[in-house]
Every structure is written in structure tokens, then in C-alpha cells.
Automatic annotation (TrEMBL):
NCBIfam families: PRK06116.1 (NF004776). FAD binds at K52, D304. Its cofactor is FAD. The keyword Flavoprotein applies. Residues 340-448 form the Pyridine nucleotide-disulphide oxidoreductase dimerisation domain. Residues 7-319 form the FAD/NAD(P)-binding domain. Keywords: Disulfide bond, FAD, Flavoprotein, NAD, Nucleotide-binding, Oxidoreductase, Redox-active center. It holds the Pfam family Pyr_redox_2. Belongs to the class-I pyridine nucleotide-disulfide oxidoreductase family. PROSITE patterns: PYRIDINE_REDOX_1 (PS00076). This is Glutathione reductase. NAD(+) binds at G175, G176, G177, Y178, I179, A180, N181, E182, G263. Binds 1 FAD per subunit.
Amino acid sequence: MSDYDFDLFTIGAGSGGVRASRVAATHGAKVAIAEEHRIGGTCVIRGCVPKKMLVYGAHFAEDLEDCQRFGWKIDGKSFDWTILRDNVLADVDRLEGAYTETLENHDVTIFHERAEIAGPHTIALASGKSVTARHILIATGARPFMPECQGAEHAISSNEAFHLDKLPKRMLIAGGGYIANEFAGIFNEFGTKVTLVNRSDQLLRSYDEALRDRLLQISLMKGIEFKFNTIFEYIKPCDDGGYKVKLSDCEEEVVDCVMFAVGRRPNIEGLGLDNAGVELGEGGEIKVDRFSKTNIDHIYAVGDVTDRVQLTPVAIREGQAFADSVFGKGDPYAVDHSCVPSAVFSHPPIAAVGMTEGEAKNKLGAVRVYQSDFRPMKNVLAGRNERSLMKMICDAEDGRIVGIHMIAPEAPEMMQAAAIAVKAGLTKADFDATIAIHPTMAEELVLMR
Ligand SMILES: Cc1cc2nc3c(=O)[nH]c(=O)nc-3n(C[C@H](O)[C@H](O)[C@H](O)COP(=O)(O)OP(=O)(O)OC[C@H]3O[C@@H](n4cnc5c(N)ncnc54)[C@H](O)[C@@H]3O)c2cc1C
Ligand SMILES: NC(=O)c1ccc[n+]([C@@H]2O[C@H](COP(=O)([O-])OP(=O)(O)OC[C@H]3O[C@@H](n4cnc5c(N)ncnc54)[C@H](O)[C@@H]3O)[C@@H](O)[C@H]2O)c1
């Protein structure tokens, strides 16, 4: 008989928590999970998945325009936001059901309520119930950071963007990162007049400069406006709807919607971490070692709450590694956080793996840069003046590829395959030895000069 109610109690049923709980259960552990909002977490409910569906929906705007040059005539086209919104939200419901079913099929006990740590092995549930567990996994994710300014309460975050009653005619999006650029692209394609407002003059800081410049240039061409080096002074509701917004060094303007996308903060408030003595880092993230263990031996944390790499596949890997290491029969293993590929689902998307040109020069000294700057065949026939860019960064000494960067239609799809080669340490010569598939955009990868 165990001294505890459960072998594992997971707080948070998002990407990391669900994977860890399911895998621990397959290893024979008695597992419970608590979720205060909806099973599936950020990615499934209000992140990657519904966002990507909106990206697909938005891209039809360009396809419907371009198709005329391919001989198609579509009269009377129009867009109804509520149809897309409701279909996306219905699919989110379906996915929540699928995630719940997976947990149930693995005999994971689900508590649909908030959980807090009440003692080293004790979890207090919002209903007043208290349970004990041999191990605790904190997988509570992150939430949007809402900066302070007068009237900030009138701004929405990405959470609300999926539920808007109607499409805003004019929208200000604060931020220059993933979410700001993705949603600027989405709403701009739907016909909203979008202005992206950033406190610095740099977008997507972690990406290669050439790609960032190209995205800015294409976004401007598509009609997105940018205001750099400015911050919000106030947001005031107008009597007849909309908001008066004042940005520093700018005239007051009226918009229908203000969205903040200025980063996400670990969900640790009121979690009772002090009751178990769990240590935090400087940014409020839970400090863990490479096995996702906190300073307390039986308490672990995975995903966004640890603020290592805020991406779903990383949270899933961390959850898997934790469950295998703690409950499996093999040796413990850690997740390798190097060379993680990523994408920004902007219009067009950006994708990257490894070092940027700047990072590689700083780290390696001598690098070779190969580049392909081309107009995709489909854009040529469509009369769309939008060029793609691919860059390959190699170590000048041995030709090893240390980074690949792309801005192109379907760049994330191409990058997933290319990332395998970079992770495996292949060289430019290995790529050159591979025969192209013609005609594709991806063939540029093996033809770069
Ligand atoms: C708009 C948006 C788009 C994104 N797009 C992408 C993308 O395209 N690709 C990608 O890889 N990543 C994307 N991300 C990031 C990705 O969603 C996260 O990295 C991922 O969901 C992190 O998983 P997690 O398990 O750490 O946390 P989460 O998935 O956030 O899960 C944490 C869960 O814990 C629950 N919780 C918190 N506190 C408690 C408590 N005390 N008791 C009970 N439950 C609690 C929360 O309600 C939540 O459901 C996106 C994020 C956003 C916001
Ligand atoms: N495609 C994807 O994989 C994807 C998509 C969305 C989100 N995400 C994840 O979610 C995380 C959060 O996304 P995000 O776009 O909110 O953050 P981000 O870290 O990508 O970008 C934050 C931006 O806000 C700016 N900023 C920060 N503080 C500010 C302030 N006080 N006032 C004004 N501007 C400020 C920063 O300069 C930066 O440009 C990302 O880091 C990413 O890991 C991933």
C-alpha cells in the first residue's frame, strides 16, 4: 500500500502536463491531474491550434485574389468572421474531448478545478478537498503579460482574440514577437486596418536579421502599419464605441480594438510554492535542473512555467522525459534544448533552426553564408511581388551547417525536414550531394550558392 493517494499529481493539463500524466500512467503510476480552465491547455484551447486555423482562414484572402490569374473567376466573395470563429471554437471543443478521453483511457483521475500546493506532498483543490502525492509535477504554463498604462484593462490579449464578437475595423497590436506578428497577419488578411506598435525598432529579435527585414518589407506592402520606439500612454473608451489611444510621440487615434502581445509570464501566483519551498528564478520562472527537477527532490516542473523554450513540442518532450525518467524502467534522460526548430506563422511564415548569421559569427568567427533570394513560381504567375529568402550558415572550417533560415510560403513545413539534417550535423556538401526535387521551393535548399 502506498502512503500517498497518488504516485503523481500533475497541476495543469496542457501540453506538458497531459503528456507526462499519460506516460507516467502507462509506466504503472497512479496519476491525478488538475485543470482550472480546459483540458488541453494553451496550445489546444487558445494557442497554436486555433491560431493555425485562423492563419489558414486568413490565407484564403490571397488565394482568392491570386486565383484570377490562374483562370478562376469568383464573383461576390465575402468573409464572415463568425463562421470561421465558431467552426474553430467547435474544433477546439472536439480536441478538448479527445484530450480528456486520452487521460481517462489511461486511468488518470481528472480534477476539473484549481489546485495549489499546501505542503511538500499535499495538494489543496478549490473544492476544499485535499490529496497527497509521492511526486508533484508543476505544468501550469504561462499567461499573457499585460503592461501597465492608463486604461490597460480595455486591451485584450491573444486569449480573447479567438472570441471577438465581430471583426474590428481598426486594431492596434502591441508587441513585436511571435503573437503580435502572427495576429497582425491574420487580422490584416481579414480586412482589419492593423497597426503594430513596438517599444523598440526590432521585430522578432531571435530571428536572422535578413528575414526580419524581409517580413517587415512584405508586411508593409500588404498594408500593415508599424509604429516603432513608442509606448502606450492611455486607452480611453469612446462614447460611441471604440477607444481613443495615445502613444508616446504620436497623435491620439481612435481604434476598435487594442491587443497586447508583449510576452508571457510563468503561472506561479498563489500556487503555494512556499509551502513546499520551491525556488524561483529572477523572472518568476520555476528553477529546474536538466531533468526538470526543482530544488525539492520529488517536485518537478515542465513547460512554459520553467521559461526555457516556450514551445509546445518542447513542453511535450520535457513531460515525456520526466515521466520516463521518474516512472520508467530505463535510465533517467534529459531533453536536449539545443537546435530547436521554430516558426512564426506570419504572412508569409518564417522558420529557422540553429544560429543566426550574427550569432554564428560571434561564436565561430569564420562562417560561410549561402543564400537564395527568389520569387516563388506561384507568385510569379499570380503577379504577386513577394520574394522568398533562404539562408544557410556554415562553419567555415568544416562546412557543418549551423543554421538554416527561411521566409517563404510553407517555410515551416520545409524546415521540419531540414532541421533533422542540421541536428544531425550534416554539411553543405551533404546537401549539395542530394538531387533536387523539381519544381519545388524546397529544392533551393540543395542548390544554394
Ligand atoms: C496565441 C499563442 C500561439 C502559440 N502558437 C504556438 C505555435 O504555433 N507553436 C508552438 O510550439 N507553440 C505555440 N505557442 C506556445 C505554446 O502554446 C506553449 O508553449 C505550450 O502550450 C506550453 O505548454 P505547457 O504545458 O507548459 O502549458 P499550458 O499549455 O499553458 O498548460 C498549462 C495549464 O495549466 C492550467 N493551470 C494553471 N495553473 C493551474 C492551477 N493552479 N490549477 C490547475 N490548473 C492550472 C492552465 O489553465 C493551463 O491549461 C503559442 C502560444 C500562444 C499564447
Ligand atoms: N509560432 C510559435 O511557435 C509561437 C506563436 C505564439 C507564441 N509562441 C510562444 O509564446 C511566447 C510568447 O509570445 P509573445 O509574442 O507574447 O512574446 P515574444 O517574447 O515573442 O515577444 C514579446 C514582444 O513584446 C515586446 N515587449 C516586451 N515587454 C514589453 C512592454 N512592456 N511593452 C511593450 N512591448 C514589450 C518585446 O520587445 C517583444 O517584441 C513566445 O516567446 C513563444 O515562445 C510561439
